[in-house]
Design a protein that fits this description.
Blueprint lengths: L2 E2 L3 E2 L2 E2 L4 H8 L4 E7 L7 E7 L2 E6 L5 E7 L5 E2 L2 E2 L4 H9 L10 E2 L11 E6 L4 E6 L2 E8 L13
Antiparallel strand pairs: 1-2, 2-3, 4-5, 5-6, 6-7, 7-13, 8-9, 10-11, 11-12, 12-13
Length: 156
C-alpha cells in the first residue's frame, strides 16, 4: 500500500471522520477515545488501531483524521518500508524531494527504556517523520499539513 504524504493511503485521506473511516475499513481492532497527548486539557485525540497502522482524530477539528502511523512493511513511502536499515531509509528519503529534514531527534517518552535507542527524522515540508529503533526503520508517520495559523490544510 502506498503512503502519500499530505494525503493518506488508498481511500483513506486526511479530513475523514471516524464514521467515514469505519465505513471504508470496518471496525478497528482497538480504540483509545479522547486521549490527551499534550499539556492542554482540551487537546483530545481518538486513535483507531488497525493491523499494522493507527489513525488519529483530533477533537479540535471535529474529530477529523489528522495523523497516520504505519508500523507494517506492507505500507511503503516510495521505496522506503518499515524494517529497512535506518541509513538506507534516510538516504532514500533525502532523494525523494521531501524537503530538508530537521536534525535527528531522540525519542525518550519520559525516560522510558523502550525508547532509549529510538531516533526520529522529521520532514516538515512533507508533513512526515521516520522513526528508527536500533538502526531499523520502525514507523512512518504522516500528518495533515498546517497553514500559518495552525489550521489544517485538507487534501482536495
Amino acid at each position: 500500500m502506498d503512503i502519500k504524504p499530505k494525503f493518506g493511503f488508498d481511500k483513506i485521506h486526511f479530513g475523514l471522520t471516524i464514521a467515514q473511516v469505519k465505513t471504508i475499513l470496518g471496525e478497528p481492532e482497538d480504540m483509545d477515545a479522547d486521549q490527551n497527548f499534550s499539556d492542554e486539557p482540551d487537546d483530545l485525540t481518538t486513535v483507531l488501531y488497525y493491523d499494522g497502522y493507527s489513525l488519529s482524530f483530533d477533537k479540535k477539528v471535529d474529530y477529523r483524521l489528522t495523523e497516520m502511523l504505519f508500523e507494517d512493511e506492507s505500507f511503503k513511502l516510495g521505496k522506503i518500508a518499515v524494517g529497512m536499515a535506518e541509513d538506507k531509509a534516510v538516504e532514500l528519503a533525502e532523494g525523494m524531494n521531501l524537503g530538508d529534514w530537521n536534525d535527528p531527534f531522540a525519542e525518550d517518552e519520559d525516560n522510558d527504556p523502550e525508547f532509549e535507542s529510538t531516533t526520529g527524522y522529521s520532514f516538515d515540508e512533507a508533513s512526515l517523520s521516520l522513526l528508527c529503533t536500533d538502526g531499523r526503520l520502525t514507523e512512518i508517520e504522516i500528518y495533515v499539513p498546517l497553514d500559518e495559523n495552525d489550521n489544517p490544510i485538507w487534501p482536495k
